[in-house]
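Need residues for this backbone.
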């Protein structure tokens, strides 16, 4: 259910950057380590967008960012939870380095939740001044 709060934050960010223009698309990057179910976020984004004057009808596009860790001891890089699991052992998330078993690691990717861009509709150009001329 925390996807609702995230969706509301995404809508608020889109509104801030839209500068009063209607938003049609919001593009995001969601890391696998972020514990966000993109399909749920998409659903809640639709609800949050409908309550927004600028985002009503906007679409949420998302890119899933794979997880990647780097060992602080030996610089090995690995995905702690590579999909899909082929057996029960594959279901276990591994935060220990597969090369040296160190638990000293940093996140290279997969922890992000970023609004990458928004598409907005530009207002119609101001109509030509009416000089009483009929067209």
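Answer:
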């Amino acid at each position: 259910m925390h996807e609702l709060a995230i969706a509301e934050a995404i809508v608020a960010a889109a509104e801030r950057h839209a500068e009063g223009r209607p938003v049609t698309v919001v593009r995001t990057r969601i890391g696998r380590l972020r514990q966000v179910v993109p399909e749920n976020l998409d659903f809640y984004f639709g609800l949050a967008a409908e309550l927004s004057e600028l985002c009503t009808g906007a679409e949420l596009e998302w890119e899933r960012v794979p997880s990647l860790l780097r060992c602080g001891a030996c610089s090995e890089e690995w995905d702690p939870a590579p999909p899909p699991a082929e057996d029960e052992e594959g279901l276990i998330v591994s935060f220990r380095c597969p090369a040296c078993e160190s638990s000293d690691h940093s996140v290279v990717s997969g922890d992000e939740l970023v609004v990458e861009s928004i598409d907005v509709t530009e207002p119609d150009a101001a109509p030509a001044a009416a000089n009483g001329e009929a067209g």
